[in-house]
Design goal:
There is one protein chain. This protein has 336 residues and is an alpha/beta fold. The protein has three domains: 3-93 and 206-258, 3-Layer(aba) Sandwich (Rossmann fold), CATH 3.40.50.1860; 97-203, Rossmann fold (3-Layer(aba) Sandwich), CATH 3.40.50.1860; 264-332, Alpha-Beta Plaits. Helix content is 43%, strand content 21%. The strands form three sheets. Strands 4-3-1-2-9-10 form a six-stranded parallel beta sheet, sandwiched between helices. Strands 6-5-7-8 form a four-stranded parallel beta sheet. The longest helix has 19 residues, at 44-62. The two termini are 35 Å apart. 40% of the residues are buried. The mean pLDDT is 90.
Length: 336
């Protein structure tokens, strides 16, 4: 049986690589949920819904023996729910604050992550257990994930974006950076050019691989074959674009398959008065996260899946007439 791994996009491949290096004989299945990347700006109800949907695909299609949530944001929002639902080991991400506190000489540590990760209860508990040992500064890095997903790692614009968040932290004495998002290790070379060789930069992929190895040992589930394991890649995004970006970022060929139709991304565009938008979103979230809502160029959008779209439409029909909601169009998202 294989091991399942998922992330909101391509960042989790940094964890995938660490697992492959430590457990070369294991078969690995990776999902990039690129249609909904980044998770960092989504609400927790939506993230839980996506995490459960992707886990169901991996369990039902591949009968995986372990699941790695290779995303800090999804870990904070959904890992406890996945552990309740699944009877296999579920390994999540945890920012490496403990080793950072042990390494720092200045006594000042910075944790770089998405806003959702930093706001999660899981992270708050982790922070509380260590912040008496050092000054720990938390820094959301807006735009980093999107930049990485676009493959523009070494442009002048990217270097400026990295400096925007890193330089002020250096100025206040940070000598140890914790990368609290699986995408961020891809920007480590750019960070290193800025911070120099004396500053520590810590990611968690290797620790996650070791924890996975430990859990498989406890379950007596390690693959005993001596040949190299097989890999399979899936995405909810546009397969050609994701394949191209993954191959570019990781300097090896990775061919992604589109997720089956029931996991396909459907966008419903609609119009709604501004004064009703907040109430509408609140009502939608109360319905077990049927969809994700965003506004693009002034047009309201519901993002959902083929498996959920009919339920969503039935829910929309039941809205009070005072909402005056008008559906403009519905289409399958193609990554454009």
């Amino acid at each position: 049986m294989p091991i399942g791994i998922f992330d909101s996009g391509l960042g989790g491949l940094t964890v995938f690589e660490e697992i492959q290096n430590l457990l070369p004989h294991e078969n690995l299945i990776y999902i990039a949920d690129s249609a909904f990347a980044p998770y960092g700006d989504k609400d927790s109800v939506f993230i839980v819904r996506r995490a459960c949907l992707l886990a169901d695909f991996l369990v039902q299609t591949y009968h995986i023996k372990a699941l790695v949530v290779a995303c800090n944001t999804a870990t904070g929002a959904a890992v406890h729910i996945l552990r309740e639902r699944l009877d296999i080991p579920v390994i999540g991400m945890e920012p490496a604050i403990k080793p950072a506190v042990a390494l720092t000489q200045s006594g000042v540590v910075a944790v770089l992550a998405t806003s959702n990760t930093l706001a999660s209860d899981k992270f708050s508990k982790l922070l509380d257990s260590h912040q008496h040992q050092a000054r720990i500064i938390i820094q959301p890095c807006v735009g980093w994930v999107e930049t990485i997903e676009q493959g523009t790692l070494y442009s002048n614009w990217t270097r400026a974006l990295v400096a925007k968040y890193v330089q002020p932290l250096l100025d206040v004495g940070v000598d140890t950076f914790v990368l609290g998002c699986t995408h961020y290790p891809l920007l480590e070379p750019v960070m290193r050019d800025l911070v120099g060789d004396q500053v520590h930069i810590i990611s968690t992929g290797r620790a996650v691989a070791r924890q996975l190895h430990h859990q498989l040992l406890l379950q007596h589930a390690l693959n005993q074959h001596t040949e190299h394991g097989n890999t399979s890649f899936w995405t909810s995004g546009e397969k050609k674009q994701v394949t191209s970006m993954a191959s570019l970022l990781f300097q090896q060929e990775m061919v992604f398959n589109p997720l089956p139709q029931q996991y396909e991304t459907i966008i419903v565009e609609f119009s709604l008065e501004k004064k009703q938008q907040l109430l509408f979103q609140a009502l939608l979230q109360s319905e077990d996260g049927l969809a994700f809502v965003r506004c693009v160029h002034g047009v309201q959008q519901l993002w959902t899946t083929s498996a959920q779209v009919e339920t969503l439409k039935e829910w929309l029909k039941c809205l009070p007439k005072s909402f005056n909601l008008c559906i403009l169009q519905e289409y399958v998202w193609t990554g454009e």
